[in-house]
Structure formats: C-alpha cells, structure tokens
Amino acid sequence: MKHFSLNIKGRIVEYTNPVVMGIVNITPDSFYAGSRVTADADIEVRAAQMVEQGADMLDIGAYSTRPGADFVTAEEEMTRLKHGISAVRRAVGPDIPLSVDTFRADVARACIVEWGADIINDISGGKLDERMFETVAELRVPYVLMHTRGTPQTMQTMTDYDNVTADVVSELQRSVWKLEELGVADIIIDPGFGFAKTLEQNYELLAGLPAFDILGKPLLAGMSRKSMFTRLLGIGADEALLPTAVGNALALERGAAILRVHDVAAARQTVAVVEKMKKCQVQENFITFVDNKSI
Q: Is residue 44 within 8 Å of residue 90, measured between CB atoms?
C-alpha cells in the first residue's frame, strides 16, 4: 500500500501501515448474525473490544445492504444510528475515526454534524441519493466511494460487464472526477465485492486490484465473511473466518490500504504477516545453481 492521510475534522491522521476498520452492525438482519448488536451495552462492548484488538477505525451501519435486504426508512435508520454512534463514542472516546455506513445524504449529515461520526461510507457511490456528493463536499469529510449498480434489491441482476475490473475502475473514475470538481479531498475507493458482482467476477476483481492504482486513492477491501467465500466453499458466514483472512492477505499483497472486517484480531494478524513478508526482500546477488546430480 501507499501511505495516505485523512483530514478528520481538521486533524490530519497519517497511515503508514494497512488500516483495520471494524464493522459495528446495529441491524437486526445483517447477513452475518454474529455481527449484530442492537442494545447500547452490547454496542459499547463490541466497539471497545475492536479497539482493544487493534482497530484503527470503526464503521457503524444501521441498514443491511445484503442482496434482497428489507427496506428501512430514513427515520428508522436515523434512530438506530443516533443511539448507536452515541454508544460507540462512550466506549472508545472521540479520537477513533468513526465511519457511518449510509447512502442517504440527510442521514450522513446528521451523523457527522450532530452525533460525532467522521467519515461517510456510501455503498451506492452517490447513485441512490443525488445530494450525497454535494453533502460530502460541504461537510469536508473523507468519503468511501464504493462501486455498485442498482439497489440492494436489484443489484444481482446488473452484472453485465465487458471486463469487470476495467469497467469498475472506469465507473469509479467518473465519480472521482465529479467529487474532485466539488472539492472533495479525501476519497477512499471500495471496489464493492459482492455488490452487482457474480461469484466469478468477485475473484476477477480481487486478482485485478493492482489496476485500481490508476485512481491514486487508498483502496478499501470489504470481503469479510461474504458470499464470495460461503458460496464457493459451501459454508455459512459463521464458518468463513479463514477464507476471509486468505482473501484479505491477497488484497493486501495487491495494494489494499484498508480492510473492513467483522474480526479485528484476525485482520490485525493478517496485516502483521503480510507486512513482515513484504519487508523481507530476496537477496538479488544470492543465486544457487542446481544441476541434475544435486537434486
């Protein structure tokens, strides 16, 4: 990964190593049941545990966007996030950057201005609320720009790509240009694993992550316990920790700067192993000749 920085409400935070973003789901229907927390006390415990395990930032969401997810009104989403963000802040204090996972501009604004969130993580990449880009620009906050097509209810019918990696990069590039024209400085790129992608396309995208370097932005990989692992292996989300770690390691090797995960401790270990490997360079002048007799 390339080093990057984020302006968190006037505080410049430098990241020289891969970042672990812990997921705090305050939804009753997210795809991984083990991640769901709704009571304030449980939210506080989950957030505190993640920070203790090494989370660099947290991402809180109140609207499940899994394929076919139920519709949630903006009022209900706001109610969940208001108490959820307050609970997280009580648990971890003001300094841990907190991302809010929403595609609604009004919800994002309330979370940033009123309740203490720092980053907007928009799974729709601005496509589900035309006011989102202008809202991000006005608030001057970092923005996670994710690739998808359609809505959570329709996205899996919209997987027609000529080349999934090239098409995703191209579609994201157009959105980056729009954001930069509005003055948005801190943009994080999320290729959108599992969103409007077939099983095969998810792996093509993982293999093609180096292509996203052309965008010149930090890259977020969000594969934690997703169907790209469970469908491939015929397992449940509760059994997908090991393949998630493998996927995260491959993403880190291919340039990912941020891992968005349910399991912070495992991700922290994955980062440590991959970073150690990268620092150990092969001695270029050490060459061993092997002939048939020495085998």
A: yes
Numbers of helices and strands, H then E, in the chain:
9, 10
Q: Alpha carbon of 183 to those of 137, 170, 187: distances in Å? A: 6, 20, 11
CA 25/CA 272 separation, integer angstroms: 26
Alpha-carbon gap, residue 254 to 211, rounded angstroms: 9
Q: What is the Cα–Cα distance from 263 to 35, expressed in whole angstroms?
A: 9
Q: Cβ distance 146 to 120 under 8 Å?
A: no
Phi, psi of 124 (to 5 degrees): -95, -5
What pTM, to 2 d.p., does this model score? 0.92
Closest CA to 98 of 138, 60, 41: 60
**Confidence band of 32 (pLDDT split at 50, 70, 90):** very low
Asked if the model's pLDDT at residue 158 lies above 80, the reply is yes
Q: Closest Cα to residue 212, out of 246, 247, 237, 187?
A: 187
Token pair 């991000």 is found at 136
The one-letter amino acid code at 146 reads M
Burial class (CB in 10 A: 0-12, 13-18, 19+), 46: buried
Q: Which residues are catalytic?
A: 226, 260
- Residue 10 CA to residue 91 CA, distance in Å, equals 23
- Quick one: average pLDDT of 207-215? 98
3-class state of residue 91 by DSSP: helix
| Closest to 230 measured CA to CA, from 76, 98, 66, 101 | 66
- Where does the chain show beta strands of DSSP type E? 4-8, 11-15, 19-25, 57-61, 98-101, 119-122, 143-146, 187-190, 220-221, 258-261
